[in-house]
Amino acid sequence: MGRSERGARALGHLGSEIESCHRCPRLVSWREQVAASPRASFAGERYWGRPVRGFGDPGARLVVVGLAPAAHGANRTGRLFTGDRSGDWLFRALWRAGYANRPESVGKDDGLALSGAWVSAVVRCAPPANKPTPEERDNCLPYLRDELELLTDKRVIVVLGRFACTALAGLVGVRPRPRFGHLAEHPMPGGQVLLCSYHPSQQNTFTGTLTEEMFDAVFARARALGA
Of 4, 72, 167, 210, which residue has the fewest beta carbons closer than 10 angstroms? Predict the structure, then answer.
């Protein structure tokens, strides 16, 4: 068995562990409550309603880390950033940068494939109001730590938003605490680079705080850094 096959298998085992997690009672209750009461536009759909694993290319040189699954996005579809407006922005940008084979993702089995990229999150269950508690964040961080250790070819980690930046920096030991700003770069122990981006939330994209040109610049910079 080659190194890439071993890595893929280990990531698969980790994904199964993530999906069976019940560490945070508040998040378990919320994700299941949302799944039991679908939004009207998704009436009749069966929601995932569980923690969500990372996905992509086990040989990824680029890792993208978001905050958490969206209540009616990944908590519905079972795949991070799939089925919500933030994901629409992310996958279009990854496609334009050559990391994805298609510019959209609407379901877990829609044929989307990532090449050279892996998508993850700090917290794996949908939190109320998109705000996990510090304890919930810390309960989940070991999964991200293990995931990053298995992604041995990574060169650049793009963090989407201040929450992901702060959590990731603490996890990997970036010192001093990094300044968050769009396109801010911070060296990581081991030679990788932490690259910051505004989150493609509706709050940012509807107001013009984040434009597609600004988002494309993040992944162009990731390429230039070796991802």
Answer: 4
